[in-house]
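Researcher: Good morning. I'm working through a list of sequences from a screen, and I'd like to move beyond sequence-only analysis. For each chain I'm collecting a predicted structure so we can compare shapes side by side. This is the next one on the list. No need for commentary yet; just the structure.
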Amino acid sequence: MKLGHVLTTAVAALLISAPSLSLAQQSAGDFREIDDDDRIVEPFNLSADRMDDMDVVTAEGEEIGAIEDVLMDASGQPVAVAVEVDDLLDIDDEERIIRLDQLRLDDDRFVTDLSKSQIESLPIWDD
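Model: Good morning. Structure tokens for this chain:
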């Protein structure tokens, strides 16, 4: 087997097995606010307007803040929310970007398993 073929195979294997870009590696510039308030956001089956101002809490029930914006990626798919964090993190009026797959709907609020330190390290949304 030629060295070039081995290297090509190795690079292809790495690309296939590499995880997609994590949110921590993404910047706020990778997202845009959803302007259509009637847009349904899966998997929650809620409109972007309905999600606006819904509370986000930790798994222990500690309030993190409220959703300010639903965000989409470059392809136009809803993928994250901007949450205005409360005093939980001792941060004044900063909005942090939380991926939709890091949230679950519990009645009329969202719950995340992220820790305080993980939330502090999330990208800041500055619209």
